[in-house]
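Run: sequence + magnesium ion -> complex structure.
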Amino acid sequence: MAASLIIWVASALLILGVLTQRHWDPWLKKAGYDRSAVSWRWYLVGFPATALRMRWRWKQVCLVNDLSISRTPTRAVLGDLAVRGTSLRPIPPRLGLPKLTRTGLVVRVRLQPGQTPHRFVMASEALEHAWRVHRVRVTTPRRGELIMTVTAGDSLRQPGKNGQVQQEPEPLMSARVGRIEDGGEWLLDLRRVPHWLVVGATQSGKSTLVGAWVRRLAPQPVALVGIDCKGGMELGLMEPRLTALACDRQQAIRVLDVLVDVMKTRMAVCRSAQVRSIWELPEDERPVPIVVLVDELAELYLSDGSRESRDEAMQCSTLLLRIAQLGAALGLHLIVAGQRVGSDLGPGVTALRAQLGGRIAHRVNDSSTAEMALGDLSPDAVAVAQSILPGEQGVAVTTVGARWMRVRSDLMSTEETRAVAARYADQTPRMPALSAAVAGDGEGGEAE
Ligand SMILES: Nc1ncnc2c1ncn2[C@@H]1O[C@H](COP(=O)(O)OP(=O)(O)OP(=O)(O)O)[C@@H](O)[C@H]1O
Ligand SMILES: [Mg+2]
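>> structure
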């Protein structure tokens, strides 16, 4: 009697707490409690309800999506006929116990003999609808087993502010530029993936992401070189922290020329030290890594049909390709942003794209852009990129190898960006040859 009274009172308090959550949320926030990290509504109501729904609908979903097997053969001979039928007792794979996570749950599925993960990957959208969750990701950590990672709601709905992200110093060449769908930090590591391609329609968030990247690299001993042929409007905000900023195509060609010379000098250094990359040199002899940021690639490739403009586009293409092909071991990295990166821009673009191993696609207006950016690495990611809505600025799909994930970059105001550039301006590595290339006086001296 007493026990059931306690259970009733506790349940009533819990339900009351959930219903009045929006009233006590501000108080918790003031006390330093981060609601985005833990959602009480999910812990108390969402998780148990979803776990029950999953178990309740599992057999039916498996049957409808052809995820069950039959112990008895589904083909038989009837007189002179070979007939094929549906099993009366289909056996679904074993669904494990769901484990609660910060953003949803994780559940293990034991495959039946003869089953492959592919069918489950294809059925993940059906599972999302049947379980009424935001996303179901299927991965295969071990043979015969699947892990289904269920995300309850879209954690990327709210734009991220830089202040919400942990402010720990990052490892050299790494940058925490935003959030991943599962609530984790989105870390981009140029040591692991040296060159990146960022695509998206206009106003989809490309420059914001490049800005977030620059801000995170700003405190590190890295030279940042900007090529922003939209008159330097985007990267110009970070100019105090940039070693060089090219704002038109002639400047870009001169800057890229100097960077190719820098590569040759570094090659000679590595050869004489008998090492295969600058990272194997002793720290005090290692040249500073250089990150080249290109905002709007098309501006470098566009041609008005004149011979001069065609030559310039060709020069840009050759120089960028050389940096992409040889730069990684020599500490030269490329981050290239553009609305379209297809062969329609000119020869050499597809070769450049093939060298940019990291891919990030924001909202796109046509399927071919998503296909160009993601299709060759991760065909599954193409449909996800196409499902990004116009209101979801900054949301993107990124792939590394065949894996993909949904992410959102951090947003910072123009004033804050300028303040970051000013704070780290005195850490900007000086390279006279690059400054001379931007000025166009050709008196810069040695490349490095
Ligand atoms: N992560 C984000 N969160 C919220 N809003 C964002 C985010 N990223 C971008 N935006 C919004 O989208 C607008 C356009 O972003 P941005 O300038 O980066 O787009 P873009 O792809 O570079 O466009 P364009 O091709 O025209 O240069 C920004 O002014 C900002 O308001
Ligand atoms: Mg832009």
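>> summary
Residues 32-38 have pLDDT under 50 and may be disordered. The first helix runs from residue 2 to 19.
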